[in-house]
Automatic annotation (TrEMBL):
Name assigned to this protein: MOSC domain-containing protein
Transmembrane segments: none
Record domain MOSC: where: 19-168
Pfam hit, one: MOSC
InterPro entries listed in its UniProt record: MoCF_Sase_C (IPR005302), MOSC_domain (IPR052716), Pyrv_Knase-like_insert_dom_sf (IPR011037)
PROSITE patterns reported in the protein's UniProt record: MOSC
Domain of life: Bacteria
Any one GO molecular-function label of the UniProt entry: catalytic activity
Species this chain originates from: Microvirga aerilata
Gene3D superfamilies per UniProt: PK beta-barrel domain-like
PANTHER family from the UniProt entry: METAL-SULFUR CLUSTER BIOSYNTHESIS PROTEINS YUAD-RELATED, MOSC DOMAIN-CONTAINING PROTEIN
């Protein structure tokens, strides 16, 4: 199965969920046009409070829709946009990508993966128990964060459902994703 965009979302406010749209426009070095997290420096309120001059490594939030399928099996109802992501995907192991992997989306957009999204308490406010459901442990007891990856826009362009996604891996050795 080829990797594909299943939904795109954007919100001009710092709301937890984002409405689905027919398309979004990615702007190089900034993020999603019209989104509250657009900019070269951090826009997430908790990060702005600590240091507003930090670079924005969280311009675009991507989640794999396979997570929604998994959560449905656990009794949750989560749809694209509900967890605040900008791009929902299918057919790509986002969490298994290394830092610096590039996602070529649609005709021209390029997003470089910077790290993992760290789920926050807002997830439980959305649906009680959802925080625990998006966290897991591997065989060694290490925490696995399943709530998507973050990236920066290297090349802009329109992104819409149905767009193909191609992956370019960075040169080896690869670095595992860490929370950004």
């Amino acid at each position: 199965m080829s990797a594909v965009v299943t939904a795109v979302s954007c919100s001009p406010t710092h709301s937890f969920s984002k409405p689905n749209l027919a398309s979004i426009r990615l702007l190089a070095g900034l993020g999603v046009e019209g989104d509250a997290h657009l900019g070269t420096t951090v826009k997430h309120r908790s990060r702005v409070a600590k240091d507003p001059s930090q670079p924005n490594l969280r311009q675009v939030h991507l989640i794999h829709t396979e997570l929604f399928d998994e959560l449905k099996g656990k009794g949750f109802t989560v749809a694209p946009g509900d967890m605040g992501e900008n791009v929902a995907t299918r057919g790509i192991d986002l969490l298994g990508l290394p830092t610096g992997a590039r996602l070529l989306i649609g005709e021209s957009a390029v997003v470089e993966v910077t790290g993992l999204r760290n789920p926050c308490v807002q997830i439980d406010r959305f649906q009680k128990g959802l925080m625990k459901a998006v966290l897991d442990k591997d065989e060694q007891g290490n925490l696995i964060r399943k709530s998507g990856v973050m990236g920066v826009v290297l090349e802009g362009g329109e992104v819409k459902p149905g767009d193909p996604i191609r992956v370019e891996l960075p040169p080896a050795p690869h670095r595992h994703l860490e929370v950004v």
